[in-house]
Amino acid sequence: MNRTQKEALCFLATGLLTLTMCAYMFYKLFILKKAAAGCTERFLLLAVLILVVGALLTLMVWSFKRQSPKEPEADERDKLIYNRAAMVFLISAWIVLPVVGVIPQLILGYNGCVPAWSLPLINFGALVILMMIYSAAVLAQYFFRSGDGNK
Question: Residue 44: its pLDDT value, please?
Answer without folding.
Answer: 72
